[in-house]
């Protein structure tokens, strides 16, 4: 298999995870039946003011990113060129659906202008940029369940080129409008996804050059060209070789010192228990029950592990519905 | 992020002017251009919006797939890519709606087939903008990295600049960049709700302009790290480009032209081209009051009294939204192959606030540097320079 490798070292300056319980950086119980919860309290708490005209997607993007940026002193951001890379599998459906419903209900009447403006695909990244005072490289990327991995891959290229000093990379997807439709839109069914409730989230990493200080590092993203069966692949010798190769050739200082090796399986992996004791000798770090299945759950999983799992090498593995494999390697202090 | 030239190996496009970039360019140069008209597609519910609609015998989903297929196939053929080269290519798609058309088509079909039933609200079954990217990758056997940029009207122009950057960094060897946008009720009604839609015609840079008109389209540009086999008669390179996003206004680039000036100057700097070396400008020129004022003033600040010919294609093919970057670039390249620059359609009177007229007659297209500009929702701007060598 050809691997589209991006081996590098990006310092994780800050990480923040937000799942369906809407409590940033905390594991709190939640239920699929309660989705979607009102996020106005979250907005008030993270942004200090309401966002009256915005929908849940925009609110979640801004709140999740704010929770990440609040972990670093303002002076660290001052004068730096920061890029925003918003990954979303499904985008702002919560803004689009009311708008298009109104269009059809009124047979071509005039929906509210701000409803359309907010439904445009990059509106959330715009509001986030304005909230943070960021101009320049602001990209919205949407590649289904590998959106976050693609965003990391691209963010590194902008950091490496010197176009930006910092990269704010996040994944956000929100529940809309029914469980069945949401699951259908994710193409997540019994034969190609883990049997878990669906969820949502907005989780973010602030990344910088390797010489910067932070609680973690991302040292590789590898996306394969050939389809695999994810359950079988993570138990295979080929996967073990991929991991050991990464540790030999790409691992940064944190990864070399780390005491634990954790496997974070994405939602296309239906059963990862065997892999934990398999040839890769990894401990299972099962994040999905905390955030539920959503296209950018990888962002939640990696951010949560970066916050909660000290001295660890983190291998996040997922695949597309067609079996295209994606591996992200990170490490913590 | 551009650092050095990138070779343009192939391109293709489907527009309201034809089912290939070559045919579209010939029609454009010959003046075989029709104004926007009332649309006939069954999924469009409001018959009063004029738009640039591509003729097709089939339903809107079949048409979408046919448009993408034709554009990518034309580009691959021109680039003479082997299957191995296709497989190792990186795919970048710029689109806002992706396959959202499926929702509109299925809903209107359901209504048509059940005229006596009260329908439930429209449902949303498309899998996000990335769905169309996977469809293209699977169809053509592209197994490299895939990126879907969903950036409103600069989606595919941003994708071109991002792809060029990855090539210059040698992260990838080849990029297949696709722009795709079908006509949607969502966008027709959306721009109308913002009072940005001209119900009569699109008049770029004209004092009489009062809005944009949407045109559907699909296009593909193939960028390569090195000059390679191609059926094009001339060599083309993307010399440098710049993408920028402002945060001042969701819907306006500001009318003082300052941001446009900054973005164009940075694109020229990255392409290592002086303003006086620009042969012509393929402007965004939507026909909205603010966009054209902003762009016109910005270009005037860059070029001063030595303004090169400025051409907007929106009066001929409409605003392709996320596909505009790829579609207009592909059409322009085919015009260059024909040796002519097309004229601007829809212009009749200078806007004194802009102070110049776009080019309203065809001109010969010599070798040299051509500037491209694109702007969109969310304060987004793209500018790049393509050299005809």
Question: What do these coordinates show?
Answer:
The complex is a heterodimer of chains A (333) and B (389). Chain A has helices at 40-47, 56-69, 74-77, 93-105, 113-119, 123-132, 147-161, 179-185, 230-233, 237-249, 253-257, 273-276, 288-291, 297-308, and strands spanning 3-16, 82-87, 138-141, 166-173, 201-208, 216-224, 260-265, 283-284, 312-319, 325-332. Chain A is α/β, with parallel strands linked by helices. Chain A has 2 domains: 10-208, Thiolase/Chalcone synthase (Peroxisomal Thiolase, Chain A, domain 1, 3-Layer(aba) Sandwich); 216-332, Peroxisomal Thiolase, Chain A, domain 1 (3-Layer(aba) Sandwich). Chain A has a 10-stranded mixed beta sheet with strand order 3-2-4-5-1-6-10-9-7-8, with helices on both faces. In chain A, β7, α12 and β8 form a beta-alpha-beta unit. In chain A, α2 runs parallel beside α6 and α4 (93-105) packs across α5. The radius of gyration of chain A is 19 Å and the shape is globular. The model of chain A has no long low-confidence stretch (mean pLDDT 92). In chain B, α1 crosses α11 and α8 (258-271) crosses α9. With 389 residues, chain B is an alpha/beta fold. Chain B has a single domain, classed as 3-Layer(aba) Sandwich (Peroxisomal Thiolase, Chain A, domain 1), CATH 3.40.47.10. Chain B has 11 helices and 14 strands. In chain B, β9 (278-283), α9 (289-303) and β10 form a beta-alpha-beta unit. Chain B is globular. The mean pLDDT of chain B is 95. A 10-stranded mixed beta sheet of chain B has the order 5-4-6-7-1-8-14-13-9-10, sandwiched between helices. Chain B has a two-stranded antiparallel ribbon with strand order 2-3. The relative contact order of chain B is 0.20. Classes of the chains: A alpha/beta (333), B alpha/beta (389). Chains A and B meet through α4, α5, α6, β3 and α7 of A and α4, α5, β5, α6 and α7 of B.
């Amino acid at each position: 298999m050809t691997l589209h490798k991006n081996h590098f070292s990006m310092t994780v300056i800050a990480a923040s995870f937000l799942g369906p319980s809407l409590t940033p950086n905390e594991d709190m119980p939640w239920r699929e039946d309660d989705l979607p919860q009102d996020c106005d309290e979250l907005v008030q708490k993270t942004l200090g003011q309401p966002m009256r005209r915005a929908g849940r997607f925009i609110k979640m993007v801004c709140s999740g990113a704010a929770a990440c940026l609040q972990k670093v002193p303002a002076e660290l951001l001052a004068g730096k060129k920061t890029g925003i890379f918003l990954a979303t599998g499904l985008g702002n459906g919560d803004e689009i659906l009311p708008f298009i419903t109104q269009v059809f209900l009124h047979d071509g009447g005039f929906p509210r202008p701000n409803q359309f403006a907010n439904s445009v695909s990059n509106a959330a990244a715009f509001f986030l940029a304005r909230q943070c005072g960021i101009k320049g490289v602001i990209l919205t990327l949407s590649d289904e369940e590998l959106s976050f991995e693609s965003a990391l891959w691209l963010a590194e290229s902008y950091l490496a080129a010197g176009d930006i000093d910092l990269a704010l990379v996040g994944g956000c997807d929100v529940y809309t409008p029914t469980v069945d439709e949401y699951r259908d839109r994710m193409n997540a069914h019994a034969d190609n996804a883990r049997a878990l409730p669906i969820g949502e989230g907005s989780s973010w990493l602030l990344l910088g050059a390797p010489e910067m200080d932070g609680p973690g590092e991302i040292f590789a993203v590898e996306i394969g060209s050939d389809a695999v069966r994810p359950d079988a692949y993570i138990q295979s010798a080929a996967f073990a070789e991929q991991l050991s190769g990464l540790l030999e050739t790409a691992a940064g200082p944190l990864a070399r010192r780390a005491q634990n090796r954790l496997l974070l399986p994405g939602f296309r992996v239906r059963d990862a228990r065997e892999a934990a004791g398999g040839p890769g000798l990894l401990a299972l770090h099962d994040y999905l029950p905390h955030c539920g299945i959503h296209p950018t759950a990888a962002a939640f999983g990696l951010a949560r592990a970066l916050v909660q799992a000290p001295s660890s090498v983190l291998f996040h593995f997922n695949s597309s519905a067609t079996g295209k494999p994606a591996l992200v390697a990170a490490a913590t202090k | 992020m551009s650092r050095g030239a990138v070779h343009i190996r192939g391109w293709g496009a489907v527009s309201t002017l034809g089912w290939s970039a070559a045919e579209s360019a010939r029609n454009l140069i010959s003046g075989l251009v029709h104004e926007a008209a009332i649309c006939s597609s069954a999924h469009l519910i409001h018959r009063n919006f004029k738009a640039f609609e591509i003729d097709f015998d089939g339903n809107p989903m079949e048409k979408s797939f046919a448009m993408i297929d034709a554009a990518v196939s034309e580009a691959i053929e021109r680039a003479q890519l082997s299957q191995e080269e296709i497989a190792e290519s990186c795919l970048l798609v710029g689109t806002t709606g992706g396959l959202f058309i499926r929702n509109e088509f299925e809903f209107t079909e359901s209504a048509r087939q059940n005229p006596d039933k009260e329908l439930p609200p429209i449902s949303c079954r498309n899998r996000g903008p990335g769905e169309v990217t996977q469809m293209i990758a699977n169809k053509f056997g592209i197994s490299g990295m895939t990126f879907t940029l969903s950036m409103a009207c600069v989606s595919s122009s941003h994708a071109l600049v991002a792809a060029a950057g990855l090539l210059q960094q040698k992260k990838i060897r080849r990029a297949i960049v696709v722009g795709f946008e079908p006509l949607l009720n969502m966008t027709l009604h959306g721009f109308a709700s913002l009072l940005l839609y001209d119900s009569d015609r699109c008049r770029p840079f004209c004092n009489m302009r009062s809005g944009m008109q949407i045109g559907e389209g699909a296009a593909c540009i193939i960028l390569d790290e090195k000059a390679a086999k191609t059926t094009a008669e001339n060599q083309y390179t993307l010399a440098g480009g710049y993408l920028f996003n402002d945060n001042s206004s969701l819907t306006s680039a500001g009318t003082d032209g300052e941001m446009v000036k900054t973005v164009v100057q940075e694109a020229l700097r990255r392409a290592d081209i002086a303003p006086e070396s620009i042969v012509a400008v393929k402007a965004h020129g939507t026909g909205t009051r603010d966009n054209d004022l902003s762009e016109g003033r910005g270009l005037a600040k860059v070029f001063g009294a030595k303004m090169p010919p400025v051409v907007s294609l929106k009066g001929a093919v409409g605003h392709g939204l996320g596909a505009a970057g790829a579609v207009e670039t592909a059409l322009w390249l085919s015009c260059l192959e024909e040796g002519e620059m097309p004229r601007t359609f829809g212009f009749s009177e200078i806007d004194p606030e802009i102070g110049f007229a776009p080019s309203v007659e065809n001109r010969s297209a010599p070798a040299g540097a051509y500037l491209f500009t694109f702007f969109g929702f969310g304060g987004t701007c793209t500018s790049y320079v393509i050299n005809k060598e």
